[in-house]
Amino acid sequence: MFQLGLFNLGLGLMAVLTVAVINRVMISELGIPGWVTATAVAMPYFVAPARVWFGQLSDSKPLFGLHRTSYVRLGTTVFGIAVFLAVQVVWQLGSAVRASGGWVWNEQTMTWTALLALLFAVYGMAVSASSTPFTALLVDISEEDNRSRIVAIVWSMLMVGIVIGGISGKVLLKRVQQVGETTPMEALQPPINSLFIVVPLIVLALSAIATWGIEKKYSRFLRRSSAGDREDSMTLGRSLKILTASRQTGIFFSFLLVLTIGLFLQEAVLEPYGGEVFGMEIGETTLLNSYWGMGILVGYSTTGFLVVPRLGKKLTTQIGCLFVAICFVLIAFSGFTQDPMLLKTVIFIFGLGAGTATIGAISLMLDLTAAETAGTFIGAWGLSQALARAIAISSGGFILDFGRQLFSAPLPAYSLVFGLQAVAMLVAIYILTQVSVKEFQTNAKRAIATVMEGDLDG
User: How many other C-beta atoms lie within 10 A of the C-beta of residue 65?
Assistant: First the structure.
């Protein structure tokens, strides 16, 4: 389990690069509008439908003799290259903005913005190709009674990656000081370019180590499958029929959508919030992810081993959602004090609540997954989360810009984002009351049997 967690540790490192460093540099240092930045950073999530396809591919088409591992490694290689190229385009876009004396739509800014969006889309496709088969592998090696512990360990490693990434970013970027909107491009480029070379190489190595020998030794995928020759029998069409056989699939899909929006609406604006409202430097705002990560790490470990076994997955998730809603109110309130330490403390507490909600939800997600089509189901759940993050990150930028038009001060504009997140968490609690694992499992088994007998014509 620890070995597998190294892959998620690598994803945590990458997350700091894409939604903590790039978005802060684009908005606060280069003067690129929040909605342009947020939409570009959200592109990996707009290509999320590919997750279902990659999941079904890993179910039915082994790559280099393995159903999951080869997809994970190939995807990691591609997204490492894509993220480095993306930051090079950011510099070109920043140069175009400064040459124009501010943001204007012209041939240069449109070209570089389109290219940046394309690279982030490629990055998202590669993440889908690696993370969906990886999560399906967790289903392949586990049973229902031990999944909350597996999820706790593997997703704790994700947070370890975010913490390490935040601390490393602060160390490597500490010589980059914010000077209003006139930070020299020459001061930004060398340390950030170094970060975007070293981190992807580390992540590629972690991916190889994480998957080494796991699938061959521990996977129960082929033993669980009753599909026979999967390359011929389990087509994408048949997988989708099984996926849509139960109304619980749609209910849980909706829950994940709202939950993820509630958790990540602030993702593109939290670092700028620290810079504008609290006067924090770029290295300090990058470190905010570490406080959140440390909180969520504690939440993950305690929830998976202590809370879920006692309260159950559904109640645990509901409690976590309520806790997160309260925390967003406190994050907005901390802006009135302009005390960075208070902000860091509240973000740590937010991490605790998010960890509780996430482990409960992921444990439920793995239960709401048919073993014979694990990749397809994981792709669907990943699609819900990715679409939600796309909506959340992009909407966060739009809401922030809208708030700036309504209010003369930055704090109310940022508070508008946090307030909407609290509302989303309450809606997620309501939807979760409609989820039934027992109903899903009964319907899924019936659908699999029917599909494999060829009785569903679609």
Answer: 9
Tokens found for residue 162: 């975010």
Which segments of 290-373 are extended strands (E)? Answer: none
- Look at residue 205 in the predicted model and tell me its pLDDT: 94
The answer to whether the beta carbons of residues 334 and 346 sit under 8 Å apart is yes
In whole angstroms, give the CA distance from residue 286 to residue 110: 28
How far is 266 from 43, CA to CA, in rounded Å? 16
Domains of the chain with CATH codes: 2-210+235-447 (1.20.1250.20)
382, burial (CB in 10 Å: exposed 0-12, middle 13-18, buried 19+): buried
Q: What are the DSSP E strand ranges found in 277-382? A: none
SS3 string, 368-398, reads: CCCHHHHHHHHHHHHHHHHHHHHHHHHHHHH
Q: Would you state the pLDDT for residue 235?
A: 56
Number of H helices, E strands in the chain: 21, 0
Condensed to tens digits (0 to 9), the pLDDT of residues 49-88 reads 788 788 878 777 878 878 788 899 999 999 999 999 999 9
Q: How far apart are CA 206 and CA 69, in angstroms?
A: 13
Q: What is the pLDDT of residues 148-164, one digit of tens each?
A: 778 888 878 887 887 78
- What DSSP assignment string belongs to 400-415? HHHHHHH-SSHHHHHH
Q: Could you give the CA distance from residue 56 to residue 372 in angstroms, rounded to a whole number? A: 10
pLDDT at residue number 320: 93
Quick: pLDDT tens for 400-409.
Answer: 888 888 888 8
First to last CA, the chain: 39
- 372: which DSSP letter? G
The residues with which 66 forms a beta bridge, in sequence order, are 63
- Around Cβ 217, how many Cβ atoms within 10 Å? 8
Whether 165 and 288 have beta carbons less than 8 Å apart is answered as no
Alpha helices per DSSP H over 147-184: 147-173
Local confidence band at 6 (pLDDT 50, 70, 90 cut-offs): very high
Asked whether the whole model's pTM tops 0.90, one would answer no
* Spacing of C-alpha 400 from chain mean position: 21
Of the ranges 51-60, 342-351, 405-414, which one carries the lowest mean pLDDT score?
Answer: 51-60
With a CB cutoff of 8 Å and minimum separation 6, the contacts of 229 are none
